[in-house]
Amino acid sequence: MNQARIREIVICMGSSCFSRGNKQLLGVIQQYLKSHGLYDAVTFRGSHCFGACENGPVLMINGNTHTRVSSADIIDILESYLV
Ligand code: FES
Predict the structure, then answer these.
(1) Pocket residue to mutate for ligand 1, from 19, 26, 58, most atoms within 8 A of Cβ
(2) Is beta strand 43-47 parallel, antiparallel or unpaired with respect to 64-66?
(3) Between β-strands 8-12 and 43-47, what pairing exists: parallel, antiparallel or unpaired?
(4) How many domains are contained in the chain?
(5) Residues enclosing ligand 1, CB less than 6 A?
(6) Residue 57's domain spans which residues?
(7) Residue 65: beta bridge partners?
(8) I need a labelling partner for 47 at 20 to 30 A (CA). Which of 7, 22, 62, 79 fits?
(9) How many angstroms does the Cα of residue 35 sit away from the middle of ligand 1?
(10) Does residue 34 belong to any structural domain of this protein?
């Protein structure tokens, strides 16, 4: 079982990030948390625009901002918090 070193994920649900990829990332992250037994241990929520649309899609993990996140990157980013 992975340690829940991911405490909180906040994904930007602003229209720019949503259309640039966060719509897909939402599902990918939910699936990842479920398949790793982290769904109940991690606070996962959406937020309004972070004011960084030009660098979207944007999300925050444990207060760290990640920009230009793609479906190809997100798993590596999540895993980097579990190592
Ligand atoms: S819509 Fe995500 S930073 Fe603005």
Answers:
(1) 58
(2) unpaired
(3) parallel
(4) 1
(5) 12, 14, 16-17, 49-53, 56, 58
(6) 8-80
(7) 60
(8) 79
(9) 28
(10) yes
